[in-house]
Amino acid sequence: MAIDIREDLRLLIDRLHDDDLADARDVLGQxxxxxxxDGREQFADWLVDSGLVRRLPQPSTEPPITRTxxxxxxxxxxxxxxxxxxx
Length: 87
Prior knowledge:
Helix content: 55-70%
């Protein structure tokens, strides 16, 4: 049955006007994303129900950590200075 449906979809796509192909791709992408999100939620519920985890972590509300740019310092590397001073 799934093979017949896939073939029907291919025929429909072949008959679409070029301008409508992008819209069809977007709609199918949204459908796939919704299916994937449902699968993740079901898996998370199963993890809790089965006792493998007690609770699911909540997503962070803090902004992501930004890296401070490295400073360029002239002279010899600090590691070499430290080794030399310990001798």
